[in-house]
Amino acid sequence: MKKALYPGTFDPITNGHYDIIERARRLFDHVIVAVADNKEKHPMFSLQERIKMVQLACREFANVEVVGFDNLTVDLADELDAKILIRGLRAVSDFEYELQLGYLNRSLNHDIETVYLMPRLSNAFVSSSSVRALLKYDAKIAHIVPTEVATYIKEKACT
Known about the structure:
This protein is α/β, with parallel strands linked by helices. The protein has six helices and five strands, in the order E-H-E-H-E-H-E-H-E-H-H.
């Protein structure tokens, strides 16, 4: 079984993330979306909220699992017996960082392979930080996040 791990903060999950997950699930038998509990990034949403949003967005994908984690990605991959890491590339500016991260992960675990996927061009401009910026001004986000996520965020704001 080809098992892949797609780690990230997903604060919140965007259409770009969803696009990569949707395509990865067709490339691999099992995809684990790993939501990082990265307090250094000061996420807008709690770990549980981010996990819930990814679960809502991916609920129709039978071969996609969502987990939270707070350790090294390569250690999580080892725990889950995932030999492939999925990383997204939106622009050339992402490439240098992602390449260094891929080399670092490989230096920590020689069995790990990193696969880079690009979102469709229509999602290339979307980032979680842009979604968070729009949310601060109560601007519309429904066109850049999965429908279930937009609904979740709207309902959360009303409570």
